[in-house]
Amino acid sequence: xxxxxxxxxxxxxxxxxxxxxxxxxxxxxxxxxxxxxxxxxxxxxxxxxxxxxxxxxxxxxxxxxxxxxxxxxxxxxxxxxxxxxxxxxxxxxxxxxxxxxxxxxxxxxxxxxxxxxxxxxxxxxxxxxxxxxxxxxxxxxxxxxx
Length: 146
Description:
Blueprint: H1 20-52, H2 58-101, H3 106-145
Helix pairs in contact: 1-2, 1-3, 2-3
């Protein structure tokens, strides 16, 4: 008695290799996280030196924090801007496929939307990390001004 071996595909476990633009996006997100981490490390090192009295001029400490703050302000929006560029490209290709083929399998459409949502989540997390470090710097600056 032969049994039929029915195989079911789980689309959630389907792995499609990343395209070049997606790899660049992930690399950009990692680079921004490194930049934010370096700025956080610099601010922590400066605050420690300030507490120990190694800084001769407290104005230079405040200026260094202001420089870090303005740098982080610029890096907060870069991930969302990069995601917007990536999403517009993905949607352009998806709609182009829809126009040509007239019938794209619903699974591929959902996969593309899932990929966009994952990339938006990554961009939001990176922006949030930059925002938290900037908030820490602003709190530190507020204590200096008070």
